[in-house]
Amino acid sequence: MRKGLFSAKLDKNLAKEVLGEGAVKEKPEQVLEDENRQHENKSRLKLPSLKPGKRALRVPRLDVKLPSLKSIPRVKTSRGSLEGAETIEMPSGLGNIVRTSSGSLMFLDDIIAVYPRIEDGAFGPLQPLTEIPGLQEIFISEAGDQANIIATVASKRYKVVLPRELLVDRLAERIAITSGINISEKNPQAAGEYHGFRVNLSMPLLSGGWQITLTKLSPPENVSYDPLLTARLLTLLSIPASMLIYGPPGAGKTTLLIHLVNTLAGLFPSLVISVVEEQPEVALHVKAHNVRKYSSFQRTVTDNIRVTRRFDRPDLLVVGELRGEEVISWFEAAGSGIPVVATVHAKSLKDTVKRLDTIIDSAGIHASILDVIGLFVESGKTITDQGIKRGVNAVYYYTGEKLHVLFKGGLHTPEEEFLSLLPHTLQFTFQGEYAHETYRVIKERLGVDRSNYHFVKLEKVRLDELPE
Known about the structure:
By secondary structure, this protein is an alpha/beta fold. It contains twelve helices and 20 strands. A hairpin with a 6-residue loop joins strand 2 and strand 3 (96-100). It is globular.
């Protein structure tokens, strides 16, 4: 009997039901083992080895008995919870089966069982997993003689199991060689892009075993934003006011940024928008026709910010993420009157200002980001046993002395309070309308229904009054 999660008999029954009766042919167990060994040996000849001694790692056994699909009555195929995937709804809370072009997957509470029909795709036996709608991330790691696989689908984390061993090192080599990621003993950790994923590879030299992180280069599925909050943020951008979206990794900052830029471009199609990033991510999902996209291949982010300011003269500058030296050129752009939107990893607003001001001061510029940035959006995430919830926690608008709290804990400041912050006219407007009229039109186009909201006057605060 083959090693792995399931018995040979259970594998066969599942395959017959999921893939069809004709997909499985009876073969002696010894023949199966010989064919599998020949396939692996043949595959190894195609790729140079990054380290000696390949080994097949078992996906760990789980204390769960998966049902035999042979005993389950036939049910209708529907779209299910994963929109765009062919889903078989299972009775009695057993979960669903999702079919893709390369195989099938069974969802069981916090487990996904992957049954590949084709294993010569870009991701080997994990190919079916990479094809399902809503996939956000896959993390693969070696631990002893086992391969641990965790996938995030529609903001919920699952343990992934396979019916046979996984060659983690072979998968890492395939990704590195095909994508051109430069990883070696001299450079044991490297990143790049591969078939629509942002990839980070780490060799055993650093992590004790291969580690592969695959992050889908697309906004997470089933993410929706409060239309009133969107309308207010876009109105403030139209003043123009520069915006900084801050929060921890994985809090949805980039997804929010993509949403705002696409919505603004839809409202004002003539805007010239420049998107500058180290690795293209926002640019892949901004669909407006008048977008100038820059990535750091031959030039740095700093160089690209200065190039687009000089030659494109954008109405809006989008910087995917602030990390280091590009903070100075970003600060210069915001100070020149160009509205700038960017994201930054930080735990709080106070931490955001402190860290960026330190970088600016180290360049000999005695100023603060509060001199040029007026709008701050806090993005957060909450992890529960049901999944990961991402969203906007708070919005602050700085006017010189104190921070106006426009949104916090699901509560909005009253309309009259918000309108008092707007100038008479805006830079982005509809046929020269006044600011309050532009705001009204934006709300109408986004479908804002005031009766759905509860407004509360939120007190202004000083930066030093906020938590670290």
